[in-house]
Amino acid sequence: MSESTIGIPDDIATESLSYADTDMTLREIAGDLQEAHRELDEYRKGSLVLAQNLKELRMKAESDGDIPLANTTKELEDSAMAVFERTRE
Questions:
Q1: What residues contact 70, with CB distance under 8 A and at least 6 apart?
Q2: CB-based contacts of 7, cutoff 8 Å, min separation 6
Q3: Which of 83, 89, 12, 3 is nearest to 49 (CA)?
Q4: What is the model's pTM?
Q5: Does the pLDDT value for residue 5 go beyond 70?
Q6: Distance from C-alpha of 46 to C-alpha of 79, rounded to nearest angstrom
Q7: Distances (CA, A) of 13 to 1, 6, 31, 38, 44
Q8: Cβ 29 vs Cβ 17: under 8 Å
Q9: What angle do CA 66, 67, 73 make, to 5 degrees?
């Protein structure tokens, strides 16, 4: 039995499934899932960097006494960390 490049045996890779009003092969579904995992990894990494940058801006705003900016960046920092937490699993 031959394996396709994504680890699905060739003899079943072309099996189709109807999903969201679209017919897709198992090979196409596996490709879409691989892409979704890659995108989630990118969001996770990006949100952590963004949270750190927002924290630095917040700390500067706090030291400058700019309370509106500090409060806004804190809320954005919390939101970026929430994205990070959601993608940790």
A1: 58, 61, 62
A2: 30
A3: 83
A4: 0.69
A5: no
A6: 12
A7: 12, 9, 11, 21, 30
A8: yes
A9: 95
Please state, in angstroms and rounded to a whole number, the distance separating the CA atoms of residues 57 and 64.
Answer: 10
72 Cβ contact partners less than 8 Å away, ≥ 6 residues apart? none
Q: What is the pLDDT of residues 28-47, one digit of tens each?
A: 888 888 998 899 999 999 99
- pLDDT number for residue 65: 98
Phi, then psi, of 16 in degrees rounded to 5: -110, 160
- From the centroid of its chain, how far is CA 10? 30
Query: Which residue, among 72, 79, 20, 74, has the nearest Cα to 46 in the 3D structure?
Result: 79
What angle, rounded to 10 degrees, do the helices at 67-86 and 26-64 form? 160
Residue 48 contacts residue 8 (beta carbons within 8 Å): no
